[in-house]
Amino acid sequence: QVQLVESGGGLVQAGGSLRLSCAASGSIFRIAAMGWHRQAPGKQRELVAVITSGSTINYADSVKGRFTISRDNAKNTVYLQMSSLKPEDTAVYYCNTRVGTTVGWYNYWGQGTQVTVSS
Questions:
Q1: Three-state SS across the chain?
Q2: CA proximity to 33, closest of 104, 87, 102, 108
Q3: How far is residue 86's CA from residue 21's CA, in Å, rounded to a whole number?
Q4: pLDDT of residue 7
Q5: Rounded CA gap, 57 and 50, in Å?
Q6: Neighbours of 54 (CB within 10 A)
Q7: How many CA atoms lie within 13 A of 79 on its CB side?
Q8: Is the backbone of residue 103 left (phi > 0), alpha (psi -120 to 50) or beta?
Q9: pLDDT one digit per residue (tens) for the chain, 119 residues
Q10: Given this model, what pLDDT does residue 28 score?
Q11: Residue 2 and residue 39: Cα distance in Å, rounded?
Q12: Alpha carbon of 89 to those of 84, 109, 111, 116: distances in Å?
């Protein structure tokens, strides 16, 4: 079993910054891609950013130049540094990772952390 624990969400004014963290623990043999998705009220969940084990990074067009994803492989942790936040960034942010265990590869999701950007 693998657990993802997220932290760092909160309320911030437009133009401000927040840093999200997501730590994976449990029966982990290897972690492939780690990423962040978000879901705003009434909208579908969307990919925000993803980083592979080889450090290839992709961002949604809406966050390019404002968000930075990084990972610490020694800590099995992925981060999302969010700057120049806009009210439209308000959403629940979910960590997602693909984990290799002794019995196969599985996708896991965090519980979500609320990010609210006030105008």
A1: CEEEEEECCEEEECCCCEEEEEEEEECCCEEEEEEEEEECCCCCCEEEEEECCCCCEEECCCCCCCEEEEEEHHHCEEEEEECCCCHHHCEEEEEEEEEEECCEEEEEECCCEEEEEEC
A2: 108
A3: 20
A4: 94
A5: 6
A6: 8
A7: 11
A8: alpha
A9: 889 999 999 999 999 999 999 999 998 888 999 999 999 999 999 999 999 998 999 999 999 999 999 999 999 999 999 999 999 999 999 999 999 988 889 999 999 999 999 99
A10: 87
A11: 23
A12: 10, 20, 18, 7
Q: What CA–CA distances, in Å, run from 96 to 28, 45, 67, 84, 118?
A: 14, 12, 17, 23, 26
Report phi then psi at 73, rounded to 5: -65, -30
Residues comprising the chain, all counted: 119
Q: Token pair 């997501």 is at which residue?
A: 22
Tokens standing for residue 65 = 């130049």
Residues 55 and 47: their CA atoms lie apart, in Å, by 17
